[in-house]
């Protein structure tokens, strides 16, 4: 149910007190909901989503303090602002109420004018907070949309022969990928994961795209491309975090592939003929150290060979928390299936095989075919 910004819930075991407060606040134009005890209050807040709750302290059953604690402990009821009502005026009770999350504390002998004024202030504050959150959510949504628009799609570069799966748990995802044409028949594939999921991670994607366009060329070896990226990113957008990445350059004309891993899960290599294996050429995270010379490895490939690049969210699934280093080999039992499927179906198929459709972390999978 959508929240009504002008609904006030009054919880008091005395009907006369409820009637008195209702009359005062109805004059101000609020919609009033009443509850006679703590249990009824919690159910009413869940149902009505009031902007403000006036909550009596001394009640039969669970008292006002316990009711407040339960309201603030549940995500569905925590948003309502709560003013405690009591005949007590001791410092300890006030501190206890504020400690549980109350926004104010009114003595029952307070005047009508004071009650109206306090309610008015906290309704305005609650509404302002909601407007701020809505504006922030819209801003983050726009950032997320902009970030996703930067991710190249297979239809944008069909000659690169790739398919992708991308699922971001957070508005500003930390996982991303890119595919860059290096020259005729040569393509650079990058799978990366920025530490963290705050809005700042979204700025890494455009920065990496610009750097790849500049350095993923025949004039730079793969390790040089990554080294230049490291040098620039570590001094700009990666000053407070780091980036893991798997870089792959495939030369279809020459039948060669060059790859390196920078703290990233190993790629799964599915040759058209021959043994399936993982590819790993370990290097430090990008942005982790000040100066570092990256190294890469090369291999022969032929038409039809496939490379599966992915982020740790793909394999770190299941009821028991595991790292990718403990779980990446879970890909192997599905290798024959992934070799036989059309390339366009492989990325989604591997997500289903590993049960990563509803992950707790971002998931990105890129399938590149020679």
Describe this structure in words.
The protein has 370 residues and is α/β, with parallel strands linked by helices. It has two domains: 4-140, Rossmann fold (3-Layer(aba) Sandwich), CATH 3.40.50; 150-369, 4-Layer Sandwich (Phosphatase 2c, domain 1), CATH 3.60.40. 34% of the residues lie in helices and 26% in strands. The chain has ten helices and 16 strands. Strands 7, 8, 9, 10, 13 and 14 form a six-stranded mixed beta sheet that branches. It has a five-stranded parallel beta sheet with strand order 2-1-3-4-5, sandwiched between helices. Helix 6 runs antiparallel to helix 7. The two termini are 52 Å apart. The model has no long low-confidence stretch (mean pLDDT 87).
Helix segment count? 10
Structural class of the secondary elements? Answer: alpha/beta
User: What string, H for helix and E for strand, traces the elements in order?
Assistant: EHEHEHEHEHEEEHHEEEEEEEHHHE
Tally the structural domains: 2
Task: Specify the helix fraction band.
Answer: 25-40%
What overall geometry do the principal axes of the alpha carbons give? elongated
Output the CATH class name of the largest domain: Alpha Beta
Give a short account of the largest sheet: 6 strands, mixed
- Please compute the radius of gyration using only Cα atoms: 29 Å
Q: According to CATH, what is the topology of the largest domain?
A: Phosphatase 2c, domain 1
- Can you tell me the CATH architecture of the largest domain? 4-Layer Sandwich
CATH superfamily of the largest domain: PPM-type phosphatase domain
Low-confidence stretches: none
Q: Give the tally of β-strands.
A: 16
Mean pLDDT: 87
Q: First CA to last CA: what distance? A: 52 Å
Report the β-strand fraction as a percent range. 25-35%
